[in-house]
Amino acid sequence: MNITPFDAPLGAKVSGLDLSLTLDEHSFSDLYAAWLEHSVLVIPDQSLTELALVEFSQRLGQLELPPASETRARGDGGASLPEIWTISNVKVDGVAIGGLGNFEADWHTDMSYLETPPIASVLYAREIPEVGANTSFADMYAALDSMPAGLRQRLSDIRVQHDSAYTSVGTLRDGATKVGDASEAVGAIHPAVRTHPETNRQALYMGRRLNASIQNMPMEQSEGLLDEIWSFCTQRQFVYEHVWQIGDLVMWDNRCTIHRRDAFDSEQRRIMWRTQVNAR
Ligand SMILES: [Fe+2]
After folding, report:
1. How far is the centre of ligand 1, averaged over its atoms, from the C-alpha of 78 (Å)?
2. Distance between CA atoms of residues 143 and 203, nearest Å
3. Is-contact 133 259, C-beta < 8 A?
4. Is residue 183 helix, strand or coil?
5. How are the residues of the chain apportioned to helix, strand and coil, as percentages rounded to the nearest 5?
6. Residue 153 in contact with residue 192, Cβ under 8 Å?
7. Nearest-angstrom CA–CA distance, 120 and 38
8. Is the model's pTM score more than 0.90?
9. Is residue 232 within 8 Å of 138, Cβ to Cβ?
């Protein structure tokens, strides 16, 4: 196994690995250590069955099942195992086989609206469009480390209200109630700065901008500070942008990264299989 860090603040490519075969303990712990160190690993050229993806993901931790509201059409490349969430714009008889369509997904970390959000996400590319749909990752350790002292100090004790109602492409989840403004958001509250339990490094943890608010702060002030933090932490210098190839498996650490996705041509097919991993 070879691990080559990207020319970016985070992320590394792993070559010489076939995840359709069961990794021995030694290789798995090397891979896990590299994942903690680089936060995002790209493992190209994989040919995985649904079961192989689930079995590999389960070595990272317990899998979070998609909510019942995420039920989609079956077939045409969508996954059939319940542990796999299909992310796709493909439709069968007018019903999508997966989530997020072909839209742009704004910066976020996965499911931060839960009290205990998934630690990892694994995304495996089955079909991709010719262009578009790149996924960018931003390093929330680096963002925090390089923050100007004044802004960093204003973050010290703040807690952020996260919102569960909308997806990363801004659509209302099935069964969720519309949120008029950020004061109506329903979801978990997390500190803006958290210590990663495995690396013991501090990272910025903002979830997503939409409908976020800072606890015990007047809304206008909260909006201003959130805008300032978000425009700082999404700067190019903190980002690795991934251009997908079929067979890429990307695994990222939701505790210290955020990600976004470009839109793509609605006439083209994109099918990704994803697992969400909870702490062991
Ligand atoms: Fe996501």
Report:
1. 18
2. 8
3. no
4. helix
5. 20, 30, 50
6. no
7. 13
8. yes
9. no
pLDDT digits (tens, 9 = 90+) for 233-276: 999 999 999 999 999 999 999 999 999 999 999 999 999 999 99
Gap between the Cα atoms of 145 and 143, Å rounded: 6
User: What is the DSSP annotation of 243-272?
Assistant: PP-TT-EEEEETTTEEEEE----TTS--EE
Written as six digits, the tokens of 125 are 């590319």
* Size of the chain in residues: 280
C-alpha 168 – ligand 1 centre gap (Å): 7
Domain with 116, as residue range(s), is 2-277
Q: How far is the CA of 150 from the centre of ligand 1 (A)?
A: 30
How much distance in Å is there from the Cα of 7 to the middle of ligand 1? 23
Domain count, the chain: 1
CATH number for 27:
3.60.130.10
CA dist., res. 170 & res. 142, Å (int)? 27
Nearest CA to 191 out of 154, 233, 159 is that of: 159
pLDDT over 90, % of the chain: 86
First to last CA, the chain: 24
